[in-house]
Design a protein that fits this description.
Elements lengths: L3 E4 L7 E5 L3 H13 L3 E5 L2 H10 L4 E5 L7 H11 L4 E6 L4 H10 L2 E4 L4 H14 L5 H6 L14
Parallel strand pairs: 2-3, 2-4, 4-5, 5-6
Antiparallel strand pairs: 1-3
Helix pairs in contact: 2-3
Amino acid sequence: MSSSATQANPQHSTRVLIYDDDEVLLDLLGTVLIREGYEIETTRCAQEGVHLISTRPFEAAIVDLGLRRTSGYGLVRKIREVSPRTAILAVSAYPSDWVVGFARTHAHGFLDKPFSLAELVRQVGELLELGGHTTETELAQSPAALGIEAAEVVV
């Protein structure tokens, strides 16, 4: 298992799980969110992601849906099952109708790759304000819900 845990501010209690198979992107997203004051756990392994979410509280999870080796879909479903208050931000470089539909039903927000780091920080902040306890109807109507345009800076 290859998880890493880091935090910028020991008093900050907002924990975010980041799941992606791209190690460079995983490190970049973690670094950006640490600078924003979040406590971060990263993983490239779906099984480890399930273990982490089952054993530790997370306020938010960022999950890449279209991974090469394994799918983020199962992890999103498991997060909803074992930690329903965790706000989920789904990301994908392949936003087909099916992917967007899945994210609309199972996640609290969606980012289409490429996205800007500023957009990521904004979305995470909005999702944490909403919390993971909103209903699907509230998710569909929220400003952090799907349909938000990706910015130009490529991640």
